[in-house]
C-alpha cells in the first residue's frame, strides 16, 4: 500500500527469518510497521502493525528492535510549543503468536521531565529491553539516561533500573542510540565532548541479569 510521504524504510531491523520495516509517515505520521517473513524462496509481507492508541504525529516506528518473537517499537511523540503532552513518546512491545503479532504493553517514561519524554530509542534481546531517553534532564540538561525493563512470565514486563553515564554532562544525549545482546548494553552519547566538542562516545554496560 505504498503512498506519498509514507517514508517506508525509515527504520529497519531483523531476526532470523523476519524483517520489520518502519513507515514513520504513514497515516499523517501516526506511523506503521510492516512485517516480512522468508518462505524459503522470497520475502513475503505478513502484517502491518499500528499502535493501539495511534494518533497523527506520534511517529510510531521511529526506532525498532526485534529478538525472536518479541518486537519493540518506539514512537517519537510530539511536544508542541504549547506543552501539549497528548502525544508523548512511548515504546510498544509486541509478541508473536500463532495468530500474528499482538501489542502486549506500552511503556511511557513518566519520571523524566517534559523534554526527556521526547524521542525515545529502544532495543531488545531475549527477556530484556533497553530504552534510551536522550533528553533526560535528571543529571544535567540533555545529559540523557537509559531504562532497563525485564520480562517476568509471558507478558509481564517490569522496570528493572535506570542508568546514567558515570561522567554525565550537559548535552551528552546519552541514550540517543541503544543496542543489547544478552547481558551487554551499548548506549550512544552523540553529544559527548570530552575528546573534542561533540565528538561523541559509546558506553558499554554489563549487567548480571
Explain how this protein is built.
- This protein is mostly beta strands.
- 2% of the residues lie in helices and 50% in strands.
- The strands form four sheets. A four-stranded antiparallel sheet has the order 1-2-3-4, with no helix packed on it. Strands 5-6-7-8 form a four-stranded antiparallel sheet, with no helix packed on it.
- Strand 9 and strand 10 form a beta hairpin.
- The longest helix is centred in the first third of the chain and has 4 residues, at 26-29.
What order do the strands of the largest sheet run in, or round the barrel if closed?
1-2-3-4
Which outline best applies? globular
Q: In angstroms, what separates the terminal alpha carbons?
A: 42 Å
Tally the helices. 1
- The mean pLDDT is 91
Helix-strand sequence: EEHEEEEEEEEEEEEE
Low-confidence stretches: none
**Helix proportion range:** under 10%
Specify the biggest β-sheet.
4 strands, antiparallel
Number of strands: 15
Radius of gyration: 17 Å
Beta-strand fraction estimate: over 45%
**In terms of structural class, how would the helical and strand content be classed?**
mainly beta
Task: List its traits.
209 residues; mainly beta; four-stranded antiparallel sheet; globular
